[in-house]
Amino acid sequence: MHSETQAISNDDTGRLRAQPGKYLAFTVAGEAYGVDILRVREIRGWSRATRVPGAPDHVLGVLNLRGSIVPVIDMRARFGMELAEPTATTVIIVLCVHGGSGERDVGVVVDAVSDVFDVAAEALRPAPEFRQDIDVRAINGIFARENDMIMLLDIDLLVDSEAITGIDD
């Protein structure tokens, strides 16, 4: 969360944690997602990561990013979706993730990046409630625009930096 703005919560559980501001929109398996633009370090074209033995299934490996070793996560695998071969629009979004061990850069592989958009406080909606076995904790809120719904992600929770600690050491 940004210190200059207050988190918004419309329900008793605090499920709507998204904040007004600018977001980067991207797609994974035809679904639209957004992350806080202030977390985006860069957007890179697709390049194969170096595999790391023993890494979780959704971790493709690591990339050397100007001397820093950056873990790369396949968002299709992370979301439990059908895997796909990279295409001309496949990119790696390098994000700044906050975790128990501090701040780190992590790459996430997505099918395509679409645009940067503004979200006003009144346009934010909480994620719907599902059965207990469906984990929607990583969805901070939903933004409806024109003909699509964009799920705003808690990248810190989704990436789970503790699961990748040691991969780049």
Characterize the structure shown:
- The protein has 169 residues and is mainly β.
- It has a single domain, classed as CheA-289, Domain 4 (OB fold (Dihydrolipoamide Acetyltransferase, E2P)), CATH 2.40.50.
- It has 3 helices and 11 strands, in the order βββββαββββββαα.
- It has helices spanning 75-78, 155-159, 161-164; strands at residues 21-28, 31-36, 40-45, 59-65, 68-74, 91-99, 102-110, 112-119, 124-125, 139-145, 148-153.
- It is globular, with a radius of gyration of 16 Å.
Layout of secondary structure:
Blueprint lengths: L20 E8 L2 E6 L3 E6 L13 E7 L2 E7 H4 L12 E9 L2 E9 L1 E8 L4 E2 L13 E7 L2 E6 L1 H5 L1 H4 L5
Parallel strand pairs: 2-11, 5-7
Antiparallel strand pairs: 1-2, 1-8, 3-6, 4-5, 6-7, 9-10, 10-11
Quick structural gist:
The chain is mainly beta and 169 residues long.
Helix percent band: under 10%
Overall morphology: globular
Biggest β-sheet, characterized?
Answer: 6 strands, mixed
Provide the CATH top-level class. Mainly Beta
CATH superfamily: CheA-289, Domain 4
| Order of strands in the sheet with most strands | 8-1-2-11-10-9
| Number of extended strands | 11
Gyration radius (Cα, Å) is 16 Å
Structural class: mainly beta
CATH topology: OB fold (Dihydrolipoamide Acetyltransferase, E2P)
Return the average pLDDT rounded to an integer: 84
Portion of residues in beta strands equals 35-45%
What is the tally of helical segments? 3
Number of domains: 1
Following the backbone from N to C, one meets helices and strands in this order, namely EEEEEHEEEEEEHH
Which spans have pLDDT < 50 for at least 5 consecutive residues?
1-14
Specify the CATH architecture. Answer: Beta Barrel
Q: How far apart are the first and last residues' alpha carbons, in Å?
A: 27 Å
